[in-house]
Amino acid sequence: MSPVVKQALCNAERLQLRLLQTDQYLEAKKHMVHYWACSSREQYTLLEREGKGVFDLPTYDPEAFQVLVPSSFGDHNIPLRVIQPRGKQAGGVFLFIHGGGFVIGSAALHDNLLRDLAERTNLVMVSVEYRLAPEFKLPAAADDCLDAAVYLMSDEARMKIGHTLQFIGGESAGAYLTVQTTLRLRDEKSIDVGTALAGIVPTYGIFDLSLLPGVRLGREKVGDAPNKQNENFMWLSLPVDAFGSLDEIKKSAWSPLYNVNLRGLPPATFGVGAEDPLIDDSILMAAKWELAGNEAELIVYPGSPHGYLVVDLDVTAEAIEDIVKFVKARLT
């Protein structure tokens, strides 16, 4: 078996437009203020809210509200940002996990995207405010996402939010956390995720935290690192002192690409841009997902970079529409 591979339609003229947009986007990222250039978390967070960080200026949804979930891994609460479809009974809950290399980003940065998805899928969109590195190294973020998912399967969530969990999805680091959360629900919570979840949507994720060769060679093109050394998101987020070698990071507890048991998992759609150095992660993860007996599709968007889901590019609307189609096809 092999995953259903969809090469998104793109004529020569449109491909040139997308390649131009990708070059412009990556050039602009070189001049953005990155986390490691700031003196504190507070300074970067302020810049992020003003649209002066890596992400665009956020627009906050006035109807969004917050639910606090107690952590089972500490004494903190995990904020969930909830956006409900307007004027109709929702058909389920979609847990969205934001990207940002485990270091930046927040649950409130992508309200426009989540509002769009809520209205078009008739799902309650719930974005989790997981703990960020380097203050909280992995697996802190994964622990918070697991707690969020477990809560969203509970009767309390049904009462407060109106429905329970059907989909999990995220972009970049959020795609990694989507896959890890799905696996941990199965392995640690003994949940039959193949039937409990209608599907998952990991978009341009990283699934080998030791970095596949394409990521290392393409690091400058991603624009997410200040130099060619190890000062990148992975080394900020991983408890590096715990590893004796890169082989340790390849263990499935950290890198889901090497999990030897991928059976019994829900349908998945893996989207990725052809110009993304992380493309190999999605190709390999989708292939292993399908080879383990699960349903998987891989959609490659020609001329498109990492991050296309949360910036305004030619490909963005098409990619969102593909997510909507995947979700609607699996709603019961």
UniProtKB/TrEMBL annotation:
A Pfam match: Abhydrolase_3
InterPro entries: AB_hydrolase_3 (IPR013094), AB_hydrolase_fold (IPR029058), GDXG_lipolytic_enzyme (IPR050300)
Chain ranges of the Alpha/beta hydrolase fold-3 domain: 95-309
GO molecular function: hydrolase activity
Swiss-Prot/TrEMBL keywords: Hydrolase
Organism: Cladophialophora psammophila CBS 110553
The name this protein goes by in its record: Alpha/beta hydrolase fold-3 domain-containing protein
